[in-house]
Automatic annotation (TrEMBL):
Residue ranges of every copy of the DNA mismatch repair protein S5 domain listed in the record: 208-326
Example GO BP: mismatch repair
Keyword DNA damage: yes
Species, as recorded: Aquisalibacillus elongatus
Domain of life: Bacteria
Protein name from the UniProt record: DNA mismatch repair protein MutL
Full-protein interval shown: 1 to 338 of 604
Protein task: This protein is involved in the repair of mismatches in DNA. It is required for dam-dependent methyl-directed DNA mismatch repair. May act as a 'molecular matchmaker', a protein that promotes the formation of a stable complex between two or more DNA-binding proteins in an ATP-dependent manner without itself being part of a final effector complex.
Species classification: Bacteria, Bacillati, Bacillota, Bacilli, Bacillales
Coiled-coil segments on the chain, per record: none
């Protein structure tokens, strides 16, 4: 008799959750990505005890139709891609169809959603099992509440840090989302108190000010350039406002926040001698391109990507940063103050 068994869905979802859901901040990242993919213009986040007790994300997006509500919790079930062609041209933040299955397998989750043109749905899922379904009247949009995260995975629960640390990770996640989507209005409440908001008027500099403060916003230089395949835009900090670590470099590729040491290096090369030794710049760099030129299917957290025309990208980043800083130093002293 063979010894290999096909694991039941409940177990494989928990295994996937181990990768996708590390802490409350990762739940928030996935829920915000879903709200953005659903064309939301307003997203409200309500947290209790840094999300350890409860995380609620409310949006005014497309909503989920009654027929799809249960399917949304199946593993590898998605409305965002249908074939291999789409997988290599991903235009949305999500595409793996794993987040809701994973999150609901390690928490007690309530979904309330409506597409606006028919009765809404309420679905309760505990530890991956559907516990209840009801009609729900609600205006267009989706509300997902995640309570008691990791209640059924004690080892993961134990690994969570203090409220302070978890809130730090959450803030970082929301900041990244807000920087990548200045056209979306974000509001975040912690234990009933508003801790963050953005106006959602598309003005990236205002989001930068909201996150880093007025002094930094006033010392950012606008960048804009394009090559054959890449459009780059955003803001780079003047050399006077450097930082002691590279956490202040935000890279956004087609609206997705990513990590990429090679692009960081292109930025540093662009700053060249403008940067004091051991100091790092504040940068928000938006890179837009044909989705075909970037592979986002590298890691479950979707923060690593591979570019197919790297050299062209690194050159345009480096040259644009260099030229922007150089132009700035050529402006006469009196005009600089403006
Ligand atoms: P993915 O985002 O990779 O498709 P998820 O598990 O995150 O997978 O979500 C499954 C599906 O549920 C999505 O494809 C989408 O159709 C639907 N969905 C999830 N969240 C929302 C939301 N806030 N608004 C509208 N639809 C949503
Ligand atoms: Mg998703």
């Amino acid at each position: 008799m063979g010894q290999i068994v096909q694991l039941p869905d409940e177990l494989s979802n928990k295994i996937a959750a181990g990768e996708v859901v590390e802490r409350p901040a990762s739940v928030i990242k996935e829920l915000l990505e879903n709200s953005i993919d659903a064309h939301s213009q307003w997203i409200k986040i309500e947290l209790e005890e840094a999300g350890l007790r409860s995380i609620k994300v409310i949006d005014d997006g497309d909503g989920i139709s009654p027929d799809d509500c249960e399917k949304a919790f199946f593993r590898h079930a998605t409305s965002k891609i249908i074939d291999e062609f789409d997988l290599f041209r991903v235009k949305t933040l999500g595409f793996r169809g794993e987040a809701l299955a994973s999150i609901s397998s390690v928490s007690q989750l309530t979904l309330r959603t409506s597409t606006g043109d028919q009765a809404g749905t309420e679905l309760v899922v505990h530890g991956g099992e559907i516990k209840g379904r009801d009609k729900h009247t609600k205006r267009k949009g989706t509300e997902i509440t995640v309570e008691h995260l990791f209640y059924n995975t004690p080892a993961r629960l134990k690994y969570l840090k203090t409220i302070h640390t978890e809130l730090g990770h959450i803030t970082e996640t929301i900041n990244k989302m807000a920087l990548s989507h200045p056209d979306v209005r974000f509001e975040c409440y912690h234990n009933g108190k508003r801790i963050f908001y953005t106006p959602g008027n598309g003005n990236l500099l205002q989001v930068i000010q909201q996150i880093y403060g007025k002094k930094i916003a006033q010392n950012m230089l606008k960048i804009e350039n394009n090559s054959l395949d890449y459009n780059i835009s955003g803001y780079i900090g003047k050399p006077e406002i450097t930082r002691s670590n590279r956490n202040f470099i935000s890279l956004i590729v087609n609206g997705r926040f990513i990590k990429n040491p090679a692009i960081n290096k292109a930025i540093f090369d662009g700053y060249h001698t403008f940067l004091p030794i051991g100091r790092y710049p504040i940068v928000v760099l938006q890179i837009d391109m044909d989705p075909y030129l970037v592979d986002v299917n590298v890691h479950p957290a979707k923060t690593e990507v591979r570019f197919s025309k790297e050299k062209e990208l690194f050159d345009i980043v480096k040259n644009t940063v260099y030229q922007t800083l150089h132009r700035q130093t050529l402006i006469p002293q009196g005009a600089k103050k403006e």
